[in-house]
Amino acid sequence: MQYVAVSALSHPGLLRERNEDSLVVGPWTLCATVTESPQTLVFRLGTPLVVAVADGLGGHPGGDVASALVARRIASMGPVLDTEDTVRAVLNACNRAVYQAAEGGELAAMGTTVAGVVVQPGSLLVFNVGDSRVLAADRDGLRQVSVDDSPPLRPGQRTTSLVTQCLGGTPTYRAIHPHVTAAPVSPGDRYLICTDGLTDPLTTDLLEELVREHDDSRAAFELWKAAIEAGGPDNITLAVVRVADD
């Protein structure tokens, strides 16, 4: 029997007044929380298991509402996310739900990014809309397997806070085109899923070093600690996912 271990935490960082990130681990969600110690959950690998982060848009009212809405809907639909088409359909439904919740009220233009994985026996689906990321850790290092929805970077520019698509985020409805890809998965595979509060202040080389040198729970803590030491400019939400045998 194989299982999936997930070590995760969510924190507002040092400069934001509140945490507008949300986290999905199987049927569980963390929304607008403050944690400094990683929580580890272990699941037997059978029905599809979804692990995802949602980052409410900063500068827009209701970012926390949008990310929580999306996280809870994805968690409730997790067991049926067994194909690329199903994942796309659920993400499109989440987009419509954000617009419906914001319609005609003070939360107009609220929005959120989302990124995550669905783990199944022998296979894995990677999905995202926006600039939250999924990175695979293997013998070749840490490589991004999600697709950033961001404008092209200028020479010398490493990150940008702008996104070219997200769930919600505009006064009137705009369709999305989710990124969804399938990949094989086997025992020993590890993934890092995170919001840009982790990837903006830290280089990929540092992320790779921390993931490589520590086990899952310690890696999650050290990643959070490094982002805080780099100024903690944004909300930080991350999950280290590992597939293993009994």
Automatic annotation (TrEMBL):
PROSITE patterns named among the record's database cross-references: PPM_2
One Pfam family, short name: PP2C_2
SUPFAM superfamilies with a match to the protein in the record: PP2C-like (SSF81606)
Residues spanning the membrane: none
Residue span, PPM-type phosphatase domain: 3-243
Family matches, as PANTHER family: PROTEIN PHOSPHATASE (PTHR47992)
Name of the protein described by the UniProt record: Protein phosphatase 2C domain-containing protein
Classification of source organism: Bacteria, Bacillati, Actinomycetota, Actinomycetes, Kitasatosporales
